Amino acid sequence: MAAKTLTIDGTQISAENHTSILQAAKEAGVKIPTLCHLEGVYDVGACRLCLVEVKGSNKLMPACTTRIYEGMEVTTDNERLQKYRRMTLELLFAERNHVCAVCVANGHCELQALAYELGMDHVRYDYCYPKWGVDASHRFMGMDHNRCILCQRCVRVCWHIEGAGTKNVSGRGSKSHIISDLNEPWGNSTTCTSCGKCLLACPTGALFHKGDTAGESLRDRSKLEFIVNAREKQQWTV
Amino acid sequence: MDRIKIATVWLGGCAGCHMSFLDLDEFLIDLAGRVDVVYSPIIDVKEYPEGVDLCLIEGAVCNEDNLELLHQIRARTKILVSFGDCAITCNVTSLRNLLGPKNTDQILQRAYVEAADTNPVKPGLEGIVPRLLPKVRPVHDVVPVEHFLPGCPPPAPRIKAFLTNLLDQTPALTGAQLKFG
Amino acid sequence: MTLNDLQETKAKELATRKKIVLRCCLAAGCISSDAKGVKEQLVKAVAEAGLQDEVEVRGVGCMKLCCEGPLVQADPSNALYIKVTPDNAPAIIAALKGGKVALQQADPNSPFFTKQEPIVLANCGLIDPERIESYIAADGYLALHDAIVEMEPKDVLDAMVKSGLRGRGGAGFPTGLKWGTVAKSPGARKYVICNADEGDPGAFMDRSVLESDPHAILEGMVIAGYAVGADQGYIYCRAEYPLAITRLQKAIHQAKRLGLLGAGIFESPINFNIDIRIGAGAFVCGEETALMASVEGKRGTPRPRPPFPAERGLFDCPTLINNVETFANVAPILRRGVEWFAGIGTEKSKGTKVFALAGKIQNTGLIEVPMGTPLRTIVEEMGGGAPDGGKIKAVQTGGPSGGCIPAQHLDTPVDYESLTQLGSIMGSGGMIVMDETTRMVDVARFFMEFCMDESCGKCIPCRAGTVQMHHLLVKLLAREANARDLAQLEELCDMVKNTSLCGLGQTSPNPVLSTLRFFREEYEELLQPDPHAVPQLAAKP
Ligand SMILES: Cc1cc2nc3c(=O)[nH]c(=O)nc-3n(C[C@H](O)[C@H](O)[C@H](O)COP(=O)(O)O)c2cc1C
Ligand code: SF4
Ligand code: SF4
Ligand code: SF4
Ligand code: SF4
Ligand code: FES
């Protein structure tokens, strides 16, 4: 059977077999908050914002990596989920140094946007103020670790869309950080093709075009989807 | 109903939030019809009064004066509003926290000695210039806060919406009405 | 190798055995206090006394009473010498002659030993782990022969289900069910992995088994491979266990030479290879999906399950992954019978469990007890209670994922369900005893720091949540926290537990939650008054 019926927030819908809860919900017009998910690359289930309740399971399931099944009953929004999502955002804001007022992504930032959407108007945790630098060694791109939320979107597009394999994660726990090649300054990377796809993918101000004003840093993410569609579905028009 | 007593204070911030408040233009006149401003950098009152209904707090808690005043405010005010990013997130004022526990010495040295054109000397006169706290803290980390109005600064229309909501007892801002930075 | 060859090897080994055997512990613990020197001097002393034909000096694996090492035990007299130094060698030899000696001894008939029920540790401290013949003489590889030659894979699966064996790596998942799922999962290639990453602080059960009886693990893995239809196995061992790795390498080499591993096992068409993969010391690589990523050569971070490894594991193939101790149970179950095994333990937890007993207790070391043994028997009778007449306050099981069981619950039987009910877990077998001097908030902070440092950093609740929880515990201990902070800590515990991606994050709040449950007053004592305790939320102008 190619299609499955399931219930999302009380409404019965049907979706193709093997789709994720996230995809099925989107098709049904239900928006689930996400941060690490990016159309066009595979999901890793890292940000935990898309967690939903599935009847019969005592664990919360990430909507982006969980496949639907016949008769599944999903709750995407309730007080408990909202609370967890807000806490997740607070943890992110406290973890690194987010100073929106002076950030290149101010106004075009998915983290910011989610905070507004979920009503996270202040952070109750102590800010960590870690010491992270900015890698400005690349000719026209920069990486500001202070703004990185470690969603790994850049890593995935760099490996799976561009195929360059420049970006990676190094270190563990709160010391995890995005590196280029074997922890070289980005500008010295011998694998980076300077394609700029990681910039398109980045949800925050961590990856930026040098010299852009905040107003110019709007990401055109349709480019990524276009490439993936062209490659996988042979669709060459947008 | 008695007229509502409003205060606005300026802790560690750039006064931009107050400028934005003044940008309310003619709404200020409407406001004046409903409230009494009992304490503010824009009026001449020395002592924070008792029995204040609503206080808009601009700026982070940066020095000993801020700390003392804030405790006083909390004790004498019904509703506190963290007004602007500096009050809520510490924003730019907290950049010195990145320098670690010795940051106060370092920034005073940089600002008053290294960057001085004339008379390079650290402000150190006890009891005259308030001492900096070792760490800049957001307002709600020091005292409980009822409402948050982010923005750097919060633009006048949002301040207006917020105050109108509050005065008319409708729910606080959400979604598109919020905005950091 | 045929059954005949196996029996001949055994007979030959037994026939050449000398009258007296001096067993010398050569596991990592004793080696670190010069057990190698002891063995050398014993060999020399035997030669000097001209007793070469009567006395064998045998290096063996862990003899369990680790706190008293180096240990030497004599067969058949059973005398157990403790804290032996190389200088003691002549005296030990003299004692064999019946001479009176002033050597420190432990009582081999004390409850520490007699209350044990060795299945997994049956060969530990008896056989020479570096000689396959020594293992064969203890009926090693007999079960493998029976499985491959006399049983169908499905009979082996049946036996595992009926035995009631559950995984010893922490979660206690029914082993037979897991094997069955792998066997049923479609796939041309399948893998068997032995999880020897043992990273819990204070745990050394798996290391002892690997160092003392490596062939038991190989045998269990080959049987598993046969049952699920895999022909390649990996042992993922942490690099901090060099001795275990060397002995495994030796064992693999010896088993291959005898046709017990590799191509055509027991002259059947069955092939099974085992390779060792060495972990680089990340605790999270013990988590099965992270472990498999690491074996594949990728960064060792967990991924969401499902799909479970049994369906899609290593290199996307169905993969069976079990703990060292789980595999060590396999051959004994087949050799001694399913009924025998199922007769040990409790209704839902069969067999035995190995614990590494440590902390504020007289006898620290390795114990193996039937499931259902009360904690009190373990800590008071076997462990001898707290040293210097102190009072036991709590027992920590399950390492950083577990919890503290207070003294008033010491009569709890150790089985999966009972420990879970008390907010702890069986875990892999670390058991740390705490006395009255231990502050529970310190304990919680210690484990939280461990989780914070070992978080892989992939998901936010664990990466950033452990940092905040640790920060709050530090604040509490510095007497700078108030009731709001404690409420925030509890809220974070709930959130991290329910939203983290893998077991590390999901269980990281457990030490806090369990100490809060039983020792809440110790947290509350540290609280400072909140100058503005009640926010006046309701009043609006
Ligand atoms: C953070 C973490 C660390 C783990 N470490 C180990 C380990 O060191 N050894 C182990 O056998 N299992 C460990 N596990 C459990 C494994 O994921 C897996 O459940 C186990 O190897 C399955 O074997 P079993 O069924 O025989 O218990 C760990 C799990 C987590 C979440
Ligand atoms: S990355 Fe987003 S949330 Fe962070 S400082 Fe920049 S705009 Fe603000
Ligand atoms: S610019 Fe392209 S190749 Fe270079 S790091 Fe970014 S995605 Fe990779
Ligand atoms: S640099 Fe951007 S895309 Fe990459 S992990 Fe950080 S936030 Fe995500
Ligand atoms: S829970 Fe912790 S260890 Fe597990 S995936 Fe998340 S960050 Fe990594
Ligand atoms: S979008 Fe699903 S976990 Fe991030």
What is this entry, summarized?
By secondary structure, chain A is α+β, with helices and mostly antiparallel strands.
Could you list some keywords that capture this structure?
heterotrimer; A: 238 residues; alpha+beta; Ubiquitin-like (UB roll); 2 domains; five-stranded mixed beta sheet; three-stranded antiparallel beta sheet; 6 helices; 10 strands; 24% helix; C: 541 residues; alpha/beta; Glutaredoxin; Rossmann fold; 4 domains; disordered C terminus; binds flavin mononucleotide; binds iron/sulfur cluster; binds FE2/S2 (inorganic) cluster
* Small-molecule binders: flavin mononucleotide, iron/sulfur cluster, FE2/S2 (inorganic) cluster
Rg of chain A to the nearest angstrom? Answer: 19 Å
CATH level 4 superfamily of the largest domain in chain C = NADH-ubiquinone oxidoreductase 51kDa subunit
Strands of the largest sheet of chain A, in order across it? 2-1-5-3-4
Tell the overall outline of chain C.
globular
Quickly give the CATH architecture of the largest domain in chain A.
2-Layer Sandwich
Number of strands of chain C: 14
CATH class of the largest domain in chain A: Alpha Beta
Q: In terms of per-residue confidence, which ranges of chain A show pLDDT below 50 for 5 or more consecutive residues?
A: none
Number of domains of chain A: 2
Count the E strands of chain A.
Answer: 10
Q: Counting H and I runs of at least 4 residues, what is the number of helices of chain C?
A: 22
Give the overall shape of chain A, derived from the CA principal axes.
globular
